[in-house]
Design a protein that fits this description.
GO terms for molecular function: ABC-type transporter activity; ATP binding; ATP hydrolysis activity. The protein has two domains: 263 residues, Rossmann fold, CATH 3.40.50; 232 residues, no CATH class. Helices cover 50% and strands 13% of the residues. The protein has a six-stranded mixed beta sheet with strand order 5-6-7-3-8-9. A three-stranded antiparallel beta sheet has the order 2-1-4, with helices on one face. Helix 20 packs across helix 21. The radius of gyration is 27 Å and the shape is elongated.
Length: 508
């Protein structure tokens, strides 16, 4: 089985052809260097290899599978350009999160020691220096014990110490038989690459113009790639020690074979749920560490206490206020979080890990629903207190459930927005959605009959009618129609969100 196999791959953006009829095979144990001028298509080619982009023509295989499948990436480690770690997560928390995506990952201590970041456990990942951040990204690439490393300018921003540690670790990876595909424009890298590369490839005008053996012309031997300091483990297995690297962890990695482990073979059985709970925990930490947002939600929900009570409306006022609060959370919070992660490149990095889109999207939806539930409890509780209404627990539960579950389609639509527009545009669309929701939710308005008929197709209308039913208020009587319409809308928005997640330009 070839680790990477491309057959007649072409890719264009608009009228510009980026890749033309590319055929490339990378075999196990090779160290291939991909070169070319800026804009030659190197990053685009890597994106096709990793499943980030779908080729217009031709086929691409990664470890014998479609690169768009999460299971194809269980033994692949990747360093990408222009990736910013998420805010409000510490180094250890971020590494633990990425480790959870893999069926057979290294321990956090092993990963930190490997890249000489020991002692940085509790530092904020987003506040690391440029060199330390690049080391962290390399650490994440090594987390799943990869057989294949795909490195896009991995020495960018590295300080001298980090640069030395990187090449020591890469020598060890080659000694262990790992396959490497590396892109670099750093001339200083060639001092090391001359003793490591088995092949160099140059992209020019969208084609492979040069495909030749390196200066060595053969696979590097352990004596050529291994460090100078050698210790013998029990049983006579060599262990190569680096400054700042744990020898015991290296031995454990060195004993792994490139063969697919049993955990990898069973990965597909649980790939949809793998990483869900760690992802949800990370979302919770980021929320708790953003107090301004949490306080804003609390104050906005509590504003219901400032409105003068209207006995004629009863609980209808608090209920409609609660619905608007949930819609705001669904559009603004969910969509903006995804949009920020996409712009910062973090979403792109997640897509080259085995994390299944379902686990990532589900964690976002559940977190938004948890926030919505808290807001809903505040609004309904304060509203009933303000009006002096004593409702049964059954009635309160019915109102709460209808409002919360009815907001799920709009939360899913918020996910789609996050993949389609930038963060500022999410704010604008959320602001526009509120008056549209008010106009189409079913309130009696002096509008022509044709407009009223059109409003009946709005998901906000069906949401409003379902809420009226739950509150025991007069509604149009088509309960099942409203329920089915919201279910259909949720499925349609889920399809849209999945399409947006997979589309090529979402990761450009």
């Amino acid at each position: 089985m070839h680790f990477i196999e491309l057959q007649n791959v072409s890719k264009r953006f608009g009228q510009k052809v980026i890749l033309q009829e590319i055929s490339l095979t990378v075999r196990q144990g090779e160290f291939v260097v991909l070169g070319g001028a800026n804009g030659a298509g190197k990053t685009t080619l890597l994106s096709v290899i990793l499943g980030l982009l779908q080729p217009d023509t031709g086929t691409a295989l990664l470890l014998g599978r479609s690169p768009r499948l999460p299971a194809a990436k269980t033994r692949v480690g990747v360093v990408l350009q222009k990736v910013r770690p998420p805010k409000n997560l510490r180094v250890k928390e971020l590494i633990d999160l990425v480790r959870s995506y893999y069926p057979d990952a290294l321990s956090t201590e092993e990963i930190l020691n490997t890249v000489n970041l020991a002692g940085k456990h509790n530092d904020w990942a987003a506040d690391l220096s440029g060199g330390q951040e690049q080391r962290l990204l390399f650490a994440l690439a090594l987390a799943g014990k990869p057989d294949l490393l795909v490195l896009d300018e991995p020495t960018r921003n590295l300080d001298p110490e980090g640069y030395t540690d990187f090449w020591k670790q890469l020598h060890l990876c080659v000694f262990q038989g790992k396959t490497v595909l590396m892109v670099t424009n750093n001339q200083a890298d060639w001092k090391e690459l001359n003793s490591l590369a088995t092949r160099t490839i140059t992209l020019q005008d969208g084609r492979i113009q040069e495909d030749r053996q390196s200066a060595i012309g053969k696979m590097p031997t352990p004596s050529e790639t291994a460090p100078k300091q050698v210790a013998m483990s029990k049983g006579g297995i060599p262990v190569y020690s680096f400054a700042g690297t744990n020898s015991e962890s290296i031995l454990r990695v060195a004993n792994d074979t490139p063969a697919e482990s049993s955990s990898t073979l069973s990965y597909e059985n649980d790939s949809r749920s793998r990483g869900f709970f760690p992802q949800l925990w990370a979302e919770s930490l980021q929320l708790l560490r953003t107090p301004t947002y949490a306080i804003g939600i609390f104050l906005f929900s509590s504003a219901i206490a400032l409105f003068p009570p209207d006995k004629r409306l009863g609980m209808l006022g608090p209920i409609f206020f609660a619905g608007l609060s949930l819609l705001t959370i669904a559009f603004e919070r969910t969509g903006k979080r995804v949009a920020v992660e996409r712009v910062e490149g973090w979403l792109k990095l997640l897509r080259v890990t085995p994390l299944h889109p379902f686990a990532y999207l589900s964690a976002k939806v559940v977190m938004s629903l948890a926030i919505a539930a808290i807001s809903l409890l505040i609004v309904l509780g304060l509203g009933a207190w303000k009006l002096g209404i004593d409702q049964s627990w059954g009635q309160r539960s019915l109102e709460f459930t209808s409002l919360l579950l009815g907001s799920i389609p709009f939360t899913i639509f918020g996910l789609a927005l996050g993949y389609l527009v930038n963060p500022k545009s999410v704010d604008s669309i959320a602001g526009l959605a509120i008056p549209i929701a008010l106009f189409t939710c079913g309130l009696p308005l002096p509008v022509p009959q044709s407009v009223q008929d059109a409003i009946a197709y709005s998901p906000f209308y069906h949401y409003g009618q379902l809420v009226l039913w739950s509150a025991g208020q007069p509604y149009d009587g088509y309960f099942w129609l409203h329920l089915i319409w919201l279910l259909w809308t949720g499925c349609a928005f889920a399809f849209l969100a999945n399409w947006a997640y997979q589309r090529d330009r979402a990761v450009e």
